[in-house]
């Protein structure tokens, strides 16, 4: 399994991202063609949920780093 690739930190799992607007992520696994994943809930938890529901063969999770400010990151592993 590849090590997780962390995201930029967030204050909470429910912190609004992209001004709260839905957005698309283009995810390519192992150099293959990109798959578009729609993120309807624009929060870190929403990104994790959208990636996992896409069944791309990777697992996304929200990780707490334990830091006092912006402790949450999204990690994706295969």
Shape: globular
List unreliable stretches of 5+ residues.
none
Largest sheet: 3 strands, antiparallel
* Termini Cα gap: 6 Å
Structure description:
This protein has 78 residues and is an alpha+beta fold. Helices cover 13% and strands 31% of the residues. The radius of gyration is 12 Å and the shape is globular.
How is the secondary structure organized here?
Layout: E1 5-6, E2 23-27, E3 35-39, H1 44-53, E4 59-64, E5 72-77
Antiparallel strand pairs: 1-5, 2-3, 4-5
Précis, in short:
With 78 residues, the protein is α+β, with helices and mostly antiparallel strands.
Key words describing this protein structure:
alpha+beta; 78 residues; two-stranded antiparallel ribbon; three-stranded antiparallel beta sheet
């Amino acid at each position: 399994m590849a090590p997780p690739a962390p995201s930029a930190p967030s204050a909470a799992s429910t912190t609004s991202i992209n001004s709260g607007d839905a957005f698309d992520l283009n995810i390519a696994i192992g150099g293959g063609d990109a798959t578009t994943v729609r993120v309807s809930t624009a929060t870190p938890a929403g990104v994790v949920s959208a990636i996992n529901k896409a069944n791309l063969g990777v697992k996304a999770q929200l990780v707490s780093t334990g830091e006092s400010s912006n402790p949450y990151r999204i990690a994706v592993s295969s």
